[in-house]
Each structure stands twice: as C-alpha cells, then as structure tokens.
Design goal:
Layout lengths: L2 H6 L4 H16 L6 H33 L7 E3 L4 E3 L2 H14 L2 E8 L5 E10 L4 E9 L13 H20 L20 H13 L4 H8 L9 H16 L1
Antiparallel strand pairs: 1-2, 3-4, 4-5
Helix pairs in contact: 2-3, 6-8
Length: 242
C-alpha cells in the first residue's frame, strides 16, 4: 500500500476495513495492478477484519457479563447435600442476554480419555468471531461414595449435561446465589402470584426486564423482595404514563 493510501486510512478497525475494500476495488479495476501487491492487500484486509471481529466479540461479552447477576440455585444434589442452579434455570436468565448481544452457542463432544466425556461449546458472535470452550467430565457411572449408580450410557449423558451446565457458567462468569451482599437470610421474597402480576405488568409497559433486574440487583423478577415490590410496581406504572 502506498504512503498516500496509508494516510487516508481511518484509525478505527471497521473504518479501516471499509477503506481497504475501497482501495482493493480500485486496484482490481486497474489492468496494470501488481498482483503481489494485491495479495498483500488481501492479507492485510483479512487481518484487519479478524481483529475487528475479535474486538466486537470481546466488547459484547463485556456488556453481556455486566448484565448477568447472580442466579439463584433451584435444585439440590441429594448425594452431596449441595444446592445448584439447573441448566434450565441458567438458560432462562442468560439466553435473553447473550442473544441480545449477538451471541449464539452450540455444543459438541470430542475424543477424550476412557470413562470421561469432553464437552465443547462454540460461542459465535454476529460480527464473525467465534471461540471454543471445553470441559472434560467423568463418565464412569460412579456415585459420590464410589459405587456404581448408573449405566455407561446414562453416565455419558449425565457427563454431557454437567459439561453443558458448567460451561454455561464458565463462559459468562456466572455466580450462583442471591446477590445481596450477604444479607439473604431472613429476606422475604414476593409470592408466585405477585411475581406473575409483576411480570405481566412489565410486559404490558414494554419494560426491559434485564435492566429492571439489574436495578434491583436480582437474577430474576421472582427473586424480588417483598420490601421492594411496591417500588417496583410504581416504577413500572410510571413507565406506562410516559
């Protein structure tokens, strides 16, 4: 690329891509174009577009993670007596956020050692960049005490499910539990009926539930405290009047 062309190139990645395409189009229409220079221009274009896509991916991931708060546990492992959030609970909260920011997920498996299953997650962004995450899970059919508790087929399926759940938390840096600075004990949550009414009201006024939950520092409308319920309804009603 000539010095004159370099000086005309914008400083932002997207602007550079558009300007470079324009330069290439002009060069392609010139019968005296140097093929080696054209190849170098194309290679430069690919590098710039790849970098721009990666930057867009990272920026969208930053925004998505800033909107995802703690997610409440909704199940208990009877063997370990520990609580956890199911994949369904994670997906219900996380999917609307990551799709809004241009992400899509797809899962697969890869070769792994005996009695394990390696789960892959391909995270793709609409800008064209993708990243692969992996988790290798036990699939030996053993329970918490070391005994055989499931068939090999069941063990592989269970390992895949665990892998999907762990990867979903890993990718978006999700913490499990109520985000209230350690003051969860004794906090009364709204009833199912109140949650249903509030959800309906938010839908009616076209409120952004992600922003709503972020404002009240909750993972979902269901986790709103009774103390905050009146203020939440008033906020939604005020949006109706605008």
């Amino acid at each position: 690329m000539t010095k004159e062309a370099q000086e005309l190139m914008p400083t932002d990645a997207q602007g550079q891509t558009n300007a470079l395409i324009s330069v290439i189009e002009r060069a392609a229409s010139n019968p005296n174009v140097d093929i080696e220079k054209m190849e170098r221009l194309l290679q430069m274009q690919e590098r710039i577009m790849a970098k721009a896509s990666e930057m867009a991916f990272n920026d969208a991931m930053n925004q998505a993670q800033s909107e995802i708060g703690r997610i409440a546990a909704d199940a208990e492992n009877q063997q370990t007596r520990s609580k956890y959030a199911t994949y369904a609970a994670l997906d219900r909260i996380i999917r609307p956020v990551y799709t809004e920011h241009g992400f899509s997920l797809s899962f697969d498996t890869a070769d792994s050692l005996e009695n394990t299953v390696k789960v892959l997650c391909y995270v793709s962004h609409k800008a064209g960049y993708s990243r692969t995450y992996s988790a290798t899970m036990p699939a030996d059919g053993k329970g918490a005490k070391g005994g055989d508790v499931m068939t090999k087929t069941h063990a592989v399926g269970s390992g895949m499910q665990y892998g999907q759940r762990y990867l979903l938390k890993l990718i978006f840096n999700v913490a499990i539990g109520v985000d209230d600075d350690g003051n969860a004990a004794g906090v009364e949550r709204i009833s199912e009926g109140q949650a249903a009414d509030l959800n309906a009201l938010l839908d009616e006024v076209g409120a952004n539930k992600t922003a709503f939950c972020k404002y009240f520092k909750i993972s979902s409308v269901d986790n709103l405290s009774v103390k905050a319920y009146k203020d939440a309804v008033s906020m939604a009603e005020a949006k109706r009047k605008k």
